[in-house]
Amino acid sequence: MKLLVPVKRVIDYNVKPRVKSDGSGVDLSNVKMSMNPFDEIAVEEAIRLKEQGVASEIVVVSIGVAKAQETLRTALAMGADRAILIETDAEVEPLGVAKLLAKVTAEEQPGLVILGKQAIDDDSNQTGQMLAALLGWAQGTFASKVEVEGDSVAVTREVDGGLETVKLRLPAIVTTDLRLNEPRYASLPNIMKAKSKPLANRKPEEFGVDISPRLETVSVSEPAKRSAGIKVGSVDELVAKLKELGVAA
Ligand code: AMP
Protein backbone atom coordinates (compact mmCIF):
# COMPACT_ATOMS: atom_id res chain seq x y z
CA MET A 1 0.00 0.00 0.00
CA LYS A 2 1.21 3.47 -0.88
CA LEU A 3 0.86 6.33 1.64
CA LEU A 4 0.51 9.99 0.71
CA VAL A 5 1.52 12.56 3.33
CA PRO A 6 0.92 16.29 2.66
CA VAL A 7 3.38 18.48 4.56
CA LYS A 8 3.21 22.25 4.92
CA ARG A 9 6.07 24.69 5.48
CA VAL A 10 5.01 27.02 8.29
CA ILE A 11 6.53 29.50 10.72
CA ASP A 12 8.48 27.49 13.32
CA TYR A 13 6.42 26.78 16.44
CA ASN A 14 9.13 28.28 18.68
CA VAL A 15 8.99 31.65 16.93
CA LYS A 16 6.79 34.37 18.35
CA PRO A 17 4.92 35.72 15.29
CA ARG A 18 5.19 39.45 14.55
CA VAL A 19 2.22 41.16 12.95
CA LYS A 20 3.01 43.47 10.01
CA SER A 21 2.64 47.15 10.90
CA ASP A 22 -0.25 47.58 8.41
CA GLY A 23 -2.15 44.65 10.00
CA SER A 24 -2.26 42.78 6.68
CA GLY A 25 -0.71 39.57 8.02
CA VAL A 26 2.22 37.99 9.86
CA ASP A 27 5.71 39.21 9.01
CA LEU A 28 7.60 36.23 7.60
CA SER A 29 10.82 38.02 6.63
CA ASN A 30 13.89 36.46 8.28
CA VAL A 31 11.73 34.09 10.30
CA LYS A 32 12.64 30.43 10.86
CA MET A 33 10.30 28.14 8.94
CA SER A 34 9.80 24.42 9.62
CA MET A 35 7.51 21.52 8.86
CA ASN A 36 4.08 21.90 10.46
CA PRO A 37 4.38 19.86 13.71
CA PHE A 38 1.23 17.81 13.02
CA ASP A 39 2.71 16.89 9.62
CA GLU A 40 5.89 15.61 11.29
CA ILE A 41 3.61 13.33 13.28
CA ALA A 42 1.94 12.24 10.00
CA VAL A 43 5.33 11.46 8.40
CA GLU A 44 6.37 9.51 11.52
CA GLU A 45 3.15 7.48 11.46
CA ALA A 46 3.67 6.67 7.78
CA ILE A 47 7.22 5.50 8.49
CA ARG A 48 5.97 3.29 11.33
CA LEU A 49 3.36 1.75 9.00
CA LYS A 50 6.15 1.04 6.51
CA GLU A 51 8.32 -0.46 9.26
CA GLN A 52 5.39 -2.71 10.23
CA GLY A 53 5.25 -3.95 6.62
CA VAL A 54 1.79 -2.40 6.11
CA ALA A 55 2.98 0.25 3.65
CA SER A 56 5.41 -0.13 0.78
CA GLU A 57 6.04 3.47 -0.27
CA ILE A 58 5.68 6.92 1.31
CA VAL A 59 5.13 9.91 -0.98
CA VAL A 60 5.24 13.39 0.59
CA VAL A 61 3.72 16.40 -1.13
CA SER A 62 3.86 20.11 -0.40
CA ILE A 63 2.14 23.08 -2.00
CA GLY A 64 4.11 26.26 -1.56
CA VAL A 65 7.15 28.35 -2.40
CA ALA A 66 10.39 26.87 -3.81
CA LYS A 67 11.83 26.75 -0.27
CA ALA A 68 9.19 24.16 0.68
CA GLN A 69 11.72 21.79 -0.93
CA GLU A 70 13.62 21.99 2.37
CA THR A 71 10.53 20.77 4.22
CA LEU A 72 10.18 17.90 1.76
CA ARG A 73 13.89 17.02 2.17
CA THR A 74 13.32 16.87 5.94
CA ALA A 75 10.49 14.38 5.38
CA LEU A 76 12.75 12.38 3.03
CA ALA A 77 15.50 12.40 5.67
CA MET A 78 13.03 11.10 8.26
CA GLY A 79 12.25 8.15 5.95
CA ALA A 80 9.81 9.11 3.17
CA ASP A 81 10.70 7.68 -0.26
CA ARG A 82 9.72 10.32 -2.78
CA ALA A 83 8.52 13.94 -2.82
CA ILE A 84 6.37 16.21 -4.95
CA LEU A 85 6.54 19.99 -4.73
CA ILE A 86 3.62 21.87 -6.28
CA GLU A 87 5.40 25.19 -6.54
CA THR A 88 3.56 28.48 -6.22
CA ASP A 89 4.22 31.87 -4.65
CA ALA A 90 0.49 32.37 -4.13
CA GLU A 91 -1.09 31.65 -0.76
CA VAL A 92 -3.32 28.65 -1.41
CA GLU A 93 -6.35 28.31 0.87
CA PRO A 94 -7.43 24.93 2.32
CA LEU A 95 -10.03 24.33 -0.44
CA GLY A 96 -7.37 24.97 -3.13
CA VAL A 97 -4.91 22.69 -1.31
CA ALA A 98 -7.59 19.98 -1.02
CA LYS A 99 -8.40 20.23 -4.76
CA LEU A 100 -4.71 19.86 -5.68
CA LEU A 101 -4.31 16.97 -3.23
CA ALA A 102 -7.38 15.29 -4.75
CA LYS A 103 -5.63 15.41 -8.16
CA VAL A 104 -2.36 14.06 -6.71
CA THR A 105 -4.37 11.31 -4.99
CA ALA A 106 -5.97 10.37 -8.30
CA GLU A 107 -2.50 10.14 -9.90
CA GLU A 108 -0.79 8.30 -7.05
CA GLN A 109 -3.66 6.06 -5.86
CA PRO A 110 -2.55 5.80 -2.21
CA GLY A 111 -4.39 3.50 0.21
CA LEU A 112 -4.19 6.13 2.93
CA VAL A 113 -3.61 9.88 3.00
CA ILE A 114 -2.28 11.03 6.37
CA LEU A 115 -2.47 14.79 7.02
CA GLY A 116 -1.95 16.94 10.06
CA LYS A 117 -5.16 17.90 11.86
CA GLN A 118 -4.27 21.55 11.35
CA ALA A 119 -1.55 23.83 10.08
CA ILE A 120 -0.29 26.02 12.93
CA ASP A 121 -0.10 29.12 10.72
CA ASP A 122 -3.74 29.37 9.61
CA ASP A 123 -5.22 26.98 12.25
CA SER A 124 -7.86 26.10 9.64
CA ASN A 125 -8.38 22.40 10.43
CA GLN A 126 -10.15 22.02 7.07
CA THR A 127 -7.91 20.43 4.45
CA GLY A 128 -8.24 16.75 5.47
CA GLN A 129 -12.01 17.01 5.80
CA MET A 130 -12.35 18.81 2.44
CA LEU A 131 -10.13 16.23 0.75
CA ALA A 132 -12.26 13.39 2.14
CA ALA A 133 -15.39 15.12 0.82
CA LEU A 134 -13.88 15.77 -2.64
CA LEU A 135 -12.78 12.13 -2.95
CA GLY A 136 -15.88 10.65 -1.29
CA TRP A 137 -13.56 8.73 1.09
CA ALA A 138 -14.01 7.91 4.77
CA GLN A 139 -12.15 10.08 7.25
CA GLY A 140 -10.75 9.54 10.73
CA THR A 141 -9.78 12.91 12.17
CA PHE A 142 -7.70 13.80 15.27
CA ALA A 143 -6.11 10.33 15.40
CA SER A 144 -4.28 9.25 18.53
CA LYS A 145 -3.91 5.64 17.26
CA VAL A 146 -3.93 4.17 13.75
CA GLU A 147 -4.11 0.42 13.09
CA VAL A 148 -4.42 -0.98 9.57
CA GLU A 149 -6.17 -4.36 9.51
CA GLY A 150 -6.62 -5.87 6.04
CA ASP A 151 -8.77 -3.57 3.92
CA SER A 152 -9.72 -1.27 6.80
CA VAL A 153 -8.10 1.05 9.29
CA ALA A 154 -9.10 1.54 12.94
CA VAL A 155 -8.60 5.13 14.06
CA THR A 156 -8.82 6.10 17.72
CA ARG A 157 -9.91 9.72 17.96
CA GLU A 158 -9.48 12.21 20.76
CA VAL A 159 -12.92 13.61 21.46
CA ASP A 160 -14.27 15.67 24.36
CA GLY A 161 -14.33 13.50 27.45
CA GLY A 162 -12.58 10.44 26.04
CA LEU A 163 -11.62 8.36 23.06
CA GLU A 164 -13.69 7.13 20.13
CA THR A 165 -12.57 4.36 17.77
CA VAL A 166 -13.89 4.31 14.22
CA LYS A 167 -13.25 1.71 11.53
CA LEU A 168 -12.82 3.05 7.99
CA ARG A 169 -12.78 1.16 4.73
CA LEU A 170 -9.61 1.83 2.74
CA PRO A 171 -8.74 4.01 0.89
CA ALA A 172 -9.25 6.62 3.60
CA ILE A 173 -8.13 9.94 5.06
CA VAL A 174 -6.55 10.22 8.50
CA THR A 175 -5.59 13.44 10.29
CA THR A 176 -3.11 13.34 13.16
CA ASP A 177 -3.47 14.62 16.72
CA LEU A 178 -0.59 15.52 19.03
CA ARG A 179 -0.47 12.29 21.01
CA LEU A 180 -0.32 9.88 18.04
CA ASN A 181 3.46 9.50 18.24
CA GLU A 182 6.73 11.31 18.85
CA PRO A 183 8.43 12.08 15.54
CA ARG A 184 12.03 10.93 15.09
CA TYR A 185 14.95 13.21 14.30
CA ALA A 186 16.67 12.62 10.99
CA SER A 187 20.21 11.26 11.43
CA LEU A 188 23.09 12.89 9.56
CA PRO A 189 23.57 9.89 7.19
CA ASN A 190 19.83 9.99 6.41
CA ILE A 191 19.99 13.74 5.74
CA MET A 192 22.80 13.03 3.24
CA LYS A 193 20.84 10.14 1.68
CA ALA A 194 17.73 12.31 1.35
CA LYS A 195 19.57 14.63 -1.04
CA SER A 196 19.47 11.94 -3.73
CA LYS A 197 15.87 10.82 -3.21
CA PRO A 198 13.48 11.85 -6.04
CA LEU A 199 11.74 15.23 -5.74
CA ALA A 200 9.39 16.17 -8.59
CA ASN A 201 8.68 19.83 -9.27
CA ARG A 202 5.16 20.52 -10.50
CA LYS A 203 3.05 23.65 -11.02
CA PRO A 204 -0.59 24.15 -9.92
CA GLU A 205 -1.60 24.90 -13.56
CA GLU A 206 -0.77 21.30 -14.52
CA PHE A 207 -3.66 20.04 -12.41
CA GLY A 208 -6.45 22.11 -14.00
CA VAL A 209 -8.20 23.15 -10.79
CA ASP A 210 -9.39 26.57 -9.65
CA ILE A 211 -7.30 27.58 -6.64
CA SER A 212 -8.13 31.28 -6.72
CA PRO A 213 -8.71 32.74 -3.25
CA ARG A 214 -12.23 32.83 -1.79
CA LEU A 215 -11.29 34.67 1.38
CA GLU A 216 -9.98 38.15 2.05
CA THR A 217 -7.99 38.79 5.23
CA VAL A 218 -9.56 41.91 6.65
CA SER A 219 -7.07 42.47 9.47
CA VAL A 220 -4.58 40.67 11.68
CA SER A 221 -3.83 41.97 15.17
CA GLU A 222 -1.67 41.00 18.13
CA PRO A 223 -3.43 39.53 21.18
CA ALA A 224 -4.33 42.22 23.73
CA LYS A 225 -1.46 42.93 26.11
CA ARG A 226 -2.06 41.70 29.66
CA SER A 227 -2.44 44.59 32.06
CA ALA A 228 -0.22 44.66 35.14
CA GLY A 229 -1.49 42.97 38.31
CA ILE A 230 -1.92 44.56 41.74
CA LYS A 231 -0.41 43.41 45.02
CA VAL A 232 -2.63 43.25 48.09
CA GLY A 233 -1.41 43.09 51.68
CA SER A 234 -4.07 40.89 53.28
CA VAL A 235 -7.06 38.64 52.64
CA ASP A 236 -9.39 41.44 53.76
CA GLU A 237 -7.86 43.79 51.26
CA LEU A 238 -8.17 41.10 48.56
CA VAL A 239 -11.88 40.60 49.30
CA ALA A 240 -12.44 44.38 49.31
CA LYS A 241 -10.65 44.67 45.93
CA LEU A 242 -12.69 41.83 44.43
CA LYS A 243 -15.91 43.50 45.63
CA GLU A 244 -14.75 46.80 44.18
CA LEU A 245 -14.11 45.09 40.81
CA GLY A 246 -17.49 43.35 40.98
CA VAL A 247 -15.89 39.86 41.00
CA ALA A 248 -17.13 38.94 44.51
CA ALA A 249 -20.38 39.78 46.32
P1 AMP B 1 -5.24 23.26 7.54
O1 AMP B 1 -6.56 22.75 7.06
O2 AMP B 1 -4.72 24.44 6.75
O3 AMP B 1 -5.24 23.53 9.04
O4 AMP B 1 -4.15 22.10 7.27
C1 AMP B 1 -4.37 20.75 7.67
C2 AMP B 1 -3.35 19.84 7.02
O5 AMP B 1 -3.47 19.89 5.60
C3 AMP B 1 -1.88 20.17 7.30
O6 AMP B 1 -1.47 19.64 8.54
C4 AMP B 1 -1.19 19.48 6.11
O7 AMP B 1 -1.10 18.08 6.31
C5 AMP B 1 -2.20 19.74 4.98
N1 AMP B 1 -1.85 20.99 4.25
C6 AMP B 1 -2.40 22.22 4.41
N2 AMP B 1 -1.81 23.12 3.59
C7 AMP B 1 -0.87 22.44 2.89
C8 AMP B 1 0.10 22.79 1.89
N3 AMP B 1 0.21 24.04 1.43
N4 AMP B 1 0.91 21.81 1.40
C9 AMP B 1 0.82 20.55 1.87
N5 AMP B 1 -0.05 20.15 2.80
C10 AMP B 1 -0.89 21.07 3.32
Automatic annotation (TrEMBL):
The keyword Electron transport applies. GO terms for molecular function: electron transfer activity. InterPro entries: ET-Flavoprotein_bsu_CS, ETF_a/b_N, ETF_b, ETF_beta_N, Rossmann-like_a/b/a_fold. Residues 23-211 form the Electron transfer flavoprotein alpha/beta-subunit N-terminal domain. Heterodimer of an alpha and a beta subunit. Belongs to the ETF beta-subunit/FixA family. PANTHER family: ELECTRON TRANSFER FLAVOPROTEIN BETA-SUBUNIT, ELECTRON TRANSFER FLAVOPROTEIN SUBUNIT BETA. This is Electron transfer flavoprotein subunit beta. It comes from Sphingobium jiangsuense. The lineage of its organism: Bacteria, Pseudomonadati, Pseudomonadota, Alphaproteobacteria, Sphingomonadales.
